[in-house]
Write a structure and sequence with these properties.
There is one protein chain. This protein is an all-alpha fold and 326 residues long. The protein is built from 13 helices and 2 strands, in the order ααααααααααββααα. A hairpin with a 4-residue loop joins strand 1 and strand 2. The longest helix has 29 residues, at 160-188. It is globular and about 65 Å long. 38% of the residues are buried. Bound molecules: fe (ii) ion (2 copies). The site of one fe (ii) ion has 6 residues, from helix 6 and helix 7.
Length: 326
Amino acid sequence: MYAQALNAKDAAPAIAEDPVKLAVFQARIDAEEKIEPNDWMPAQYRRTLIRQISQHAHSEVIGMQPEGNWVTRAPTLARKAQLLAKIQDEAGHGLYLYSAAETLGVSREELYDQLLSGRAKYSSIFNYPTLNYADMGAIGWLVDGAAIMNQIPLCRCSYGPYARAMILVCKEESFHQRQGYAIMLAMARGTAEQRAMAQDALDRFWWPSLMMFGPHDSNSVHSELSMKWKIKRFTNDGLRQKFIDATVPQAHYLGLTIPDPDLRFDEATGHWEHGVIDWDEFNRVLAGDGPCNRQRLKHRRDAEADGQWVREAAAAYAAKQRKAAA
Ligand SMILES: [Fe+2]
Ligand SMILES: [Fe+2]
């Protein structure tokens, strides 16, 4: 689902690059040219993109789980169909993104291995449980909403395959956001019990959604170079603020309360000021100790093991076809 700016520890020492090549590369970036897979690029640019795109792909795939949990319990056939369509979209996003990462010279098997072994990160938001059906609304509205804020600027990312993948992804995320908000609206206008479910979902997903934008700019190890190379266009805090400013009025329209007693509108800046984010919780979840980390990875590992025979059968069939054609 989502590109999350993570405070990863893999900021390897910069490799000395040919200054002439580096200058030409930077000039292309500054001229808004796209960098393509066969073009020269600094090793760190490649590494940063592999990390970011693969974390994004993993997030799309793991992000199917919290919602998959509700397909059989969505209240009507139409609601089930919408939820299924959204979850299938997320699988598609994962595929585009793994493919984009592969253009940088890393294999899909290696990327899967990084995820399944727990070495790779994915967005912390998917380690929270989905406890009631209104969570499907809150996830679409807030989580996909935050994803759009993150991903629209990625349509202009300097790396061509990533930027192009983001165009379709963003169109679909926009549908996801609207279907989520439509669920929230239906529940907020429903019975007292449904309104309470909608408020409960907002209470649980508000803060984790703000964490999706990653650490404060002052603590974000990757930001500066990513901005210079136009992988990122806005800082974590800048995107978070855009999201809050867009979302608070939507919550008011629903008649729901944002669970932040310090939230207030600053007339002078025109922005909503928010309270303190619990970064200890963010770091805990990112380090593997969120409410559902183990469950999510176990499910993914089981799915990989269950699909092993399919991959083997497909490979055997392809080998047979090749032999017959030879
Ligand atoms: Fe997605
Ligand atoms: Fe989505």
